[in-house]
Model the fold of this input.
Amino acid sequence: TAFISNPTTNTSTSPAMVARRRSLPTWGRRRWRGATLRGGRSAHRVFDAHDAFTRLVERQPFAGEPRIGYAITSGLLGRDGAAIDAMRRALRDEPEAIHRVPSDPLVRDQIRRLLEVYAQRVRDDFFDGDALVMVGALRLMLGEYAVGYFAVDAAIKSGDTDPAAANLRRLLEDSMYGSS
Done:
């Protein structure tokens, strides 16, 4: 599935594409819950959830929610490149989808686990723009807006010109101060 990590893929915002994205069927919380790690089947559950998100991204290439799920499960599997590319793509194509990530405790636990991975990358190299964007996105999902804003703002000030970073900063500003 080459388009999962290809940031140059056409991301049309024509009225027809926007309407098509909005009309996509709801894909449900069970995909997120499938990514939760419990007992001896933890790796199996993450692989299953990753496969499910991969199929959803293939069927709904412009939908942000499956791409965010793909990003999270890729990160949990140690596939940093795929995780970062998918998160950036979701933030470019449909940034508001990040607000629809389920907030149940099991999903939040996995987001926190992944946050530790990227927070460590930032501690190792504060100018790691990809890690800063991931920290910002994960903090937004956890409702930690100010810390997320600081991370993505640092990425932008360090030279990150990807529209995904600008969209994420706007989402964090809106979350902190209300929509403009």
User: Anything to note?
Assistant: The longest helix spans residues 105-124.
